[in-house]
Write a structure and sequence with these properties.
63 residues; 11% strand; 2 strands; two-stranded antiparallel sheet; mainly alpha; rod-shaped
């Protein structure tokens, strides 16, 4: 009977440990990936877009 409790305890402890490690890893990744999430227009960020494809489908650089 002690052997069954030991196996159940090991499985329970392992699953709790993996779950806690996953929560810590996911929260750290979410925190690091959400730093640059901001909404705005191109003017807000003083950015430009270089068009590399024209309306007729020909590829050319349009400055």
């Amino acid at each position: 009977m002690l052997f069954i409790f030991t196996i159940v305890g090991l499985l329970f402890g392992l699953s709790i440990g993996v779950g806690i490690a996953a929560v810590i890893t996911i929260s750290a990744m979410k925190k690091s990936n959400d730093i640059g999430d901001s909404q705005g227009t191109l003017r807000d960020f003083d950015a430009t877009i270089d068009i590399l494809n024209s309306e007729d489908g020909l590829r050319k650089y349009i400055p």
